[in-house]
Amino acid sequence: MQSPNNDYNATSKRGWFTRFLDGVEWLGNLLPHPITLFAVFCLFIIFISGIAAYFGVSAVDPRDGETVIKAVSLLNAEGIQRIVTNLVTNFTGFTPLGTVLVALLGVGVAERSGLISAAMRGLVMKAPPRLVTVTIVFAGVISNTAAELGYVVLVPLAAMIFYGLGRHPLAGLSAAFAGVSAGYSANLLIGTVDPLLSGITEEAAKIIDPAYTVGAEANWYFMMVSTFLIAIMGALITDKIVEPKLGKYNKDEASIDLSDQSSMDPLNKQEKRGLIYAGLSVLVLAGILALTVVPEWGILRHPETGDVKGSPFLKGVVVYIFFFFAIPGFVYGRTVETMRNDRDVIDAMSHSMSTMGMYIVLVFFAAQFVNFFKWTNFGTIFAINGAEFLTNIGMTGPIIFLFFIMVCGFVNLMLGSASAQWAITAPIFVPMLMLVGYSPEVIQAAYRIGDSVTNVITPMMSYFGLILAVAARYKKDLGIGTLVAMMLPYSMFFFVGWSVLFFLWVFVFGFPVGPAAPTYYN
Questions:
Q1: Closest alpha carbon to 119 in 148, 147, 150, 161
Q2: How far is CA 411 from CA 27, 138, 238, 407, 422, in A?
Q3: How many whole angstroms separate alpha carbon 194 and alpha carbon 222?
Q4: Name one GO molecular function term (predicted).
Q5: Does residue 453 contact residue 182 with C-beta atoms inside 8 Å?
Q6: Residue 199 reports pLDDT greater than 60
Q7: Spatial distance between the Cα atoms of 172 and 407, rounded to a whole number of angstroms
Q8: N or C: at which end does the chain have fewer Cβ atoms within 10 angstroms?
Q9: What is the number of structural domains in the chain?
Q10: pLDDT digits over 377-435, tens only?
Q11: How far apart are CA 7 and CA 11, in angstroms?
Q12: Residue 342 class from Cβ within 10 Å (0-12 exposed, 13-18 middle, 19+ buried)?
């Protein structure tokens, strides 16, 4: 029999943990909308630049040891004129804007036709029972290519699959949620998040090196390997930690009727035929693309050197995303009769763009903030002084990335948007770590780890409410604390495992994080 003291201690521990979660939620709720946040930051930069310029804030350029870089005021006539005359071009010239919209045009066709949903169902529902968990996590990671589809389709589907197999549905939900959200940056394919982040990284890198470019493929190698690590770790955590803790499921805990949950419709013949034809179209596209880059006379090789490095092939990744989703999507839609002509394709693209209204508004203010920050020279000054501080305390080795990943993970608890968070932090950390000696590509790869692993434990993540609503179907009294506690093991183990992989991949084996991506910046 358990003693009263043990009951009291257990209650105290649960109370402390609940209070901690309540505190995180309360602090997060104090933050305004990310768009409002960027607008406030813009005003803050203008105001603080005047103060910094008045007090002569500056830094000595380490490239020649003589040039003094001073803070520039935007709170004067010249600064106001610069803001007014560049407000539109700041927005239209913001690198991530065009790349993300072009990529989503293609993804929208594949999503609207039903190709992505069918591919995910086929992948998960055909998996052998012993491999169901790892397949669900793996499918969750892959679904990131199509943005929110994993949250909307795979997470509820995974809960249904686990219930149909006589397992705890919340274990299936947590496995899918971990793959989609905690493994957000890992993928076998280059998705819409890659050009978005690389564009922000490039803008930040230009603070130090105006000619520096960062392609959407900058982290491709590392993210491909990370996919398998996340899938394996996610499956082990689900089977060994989360599901045993949840115990045997009692359907009386559900808030909905589960009588029809045990039967799930598999892919029909028409959908299977559509997937086959879509796969064949992918092979044809891959063959055509190979002809443009594999032979020495390939038209997408570098026009002067003939190499793949710096070639139009690597610079045109967003174009490939568009075609590799749009064409197979239309082939699938035509086969299953969800798309019949060009109007259906146009409607799919239009629908995809209509969902980007919030993103476009966010980009407008983010672009102003990034440019204001650049004009004031704050990024360069912070980077130089920060790099000198790190050098003086002897923290210039790879261990610095452990603290960087931790900082990114902590910030992500309060600012769930990957693009919003990186737009704020990149102008500070990218130049600083470049001056210490690391490339923007490696810095971005480390950021993506921190940005991903805490997604599943923060109520600030945009789809957290949706996941909570789906989970409440299977456990009527489920609250935020229960969901966070269920997902916390994923966050902890992913942080450790993914960081270890990063250090082994980059600093032990010396592998590049992406095609032609350097590890160090000289």
A1: 150
A2: 12, 26, 26, 6, 10
A3: 12
A4: secondary active p-aminobenzoyl-glutamate transmembrane transporter activity
A5: yes
A6: yes
A7: 30
A8: N
A9: 1
A10: 887 787 677 767 766 777 778 888 998 898 888 877 766 566 667 877 788 889 889 98
A11: 6
A12: exposed
Which range is least confidently modeled, 45-54, 260-269, 433-442, 460-469? 260-269
Find the angle CA(42)-CA(44)-CA(49) to the nearest 5 degrees. 100
Strand residues in 169-265 grouped as ranges (E): none
Q: Which of 100-104, 201-205, 234-238, 478-482 has the lowest mean pLDDT?
A: 478-482
Q: How many CB atoms lie within 10 A of CB 294?
A: 14
Could you write out the DSSP letters of every residue in 325-379? HHHHHHHHHHHHTS--SHHHHHHHHHHHHHTTHHHHHHHHHHHHHHHHHHHTTHH
Give the model's confidence band at 35: pLDDT under 50 very low, under 70 low, under 90 confident, else very high.
confident
Tokens of 225: 């390997």
Contacts of 171 (CB under 8 A, 6+ apart): 162, 238, 242, 243, 246
455, 181 contact by CB (below 8 A): yes
State the Cα torsion 32-35-37-40 to the nearest 10°.
-120
- Amino acid making up residue 248: K
Q: How far is CA 141 from CA 224, 234, 256, in A?
A: 10, 10, 28
Q: Quick one: which of 440, 435, 308 has its CA closest to 384?
A: 435
Q: What is the largest CA-CA distance in the chain?
A: 80
Query: Distance of alpha carbon 110 from its chain centroid, rounded?
Result: 20
- Tell me the pLDDT band of 174, cut-offs 50, 70 and 90: very high
The reply to whether 10 falls in a domain is no
List residues bridging with 68 in a β-sheet. 60
Answer whether residue 19 is part of any domain.
no
Q: Are 249 and 163 in contact (CB under 8 A)?
A: yes
> How many angstroms separate the CA atoms of 494 and 450, rounded?
10
3 assigned to some structural domain: no
SS3 for 96? helix
Q: For residues 372 and 7, give the distance between their C-alpha atoms in angstroms, rounded to a whole number.
A: 56
pLDDT of residue 8: 41
> Cα angle vertex 369, ends 365, 370, to 5°?
120
Task: Report in angstroms the alpha-carbon separations of 205 from 103, 140, 210.
Answer: 23, 31, 7
Range of the domain at 475: 24-508
- The predicted model scores a pTM of 0.68
Q: Where are the alpha helices (DSSP H) in 126-168?
A: 132-142, 149, 155-164
Three-class HEC string of 448-490 = HHHHHHCHHHCCCCCCHHHHHHHHHHHCCCCCHHHHHHHHHHH
pLDDT above 90 as % of the chain:
31
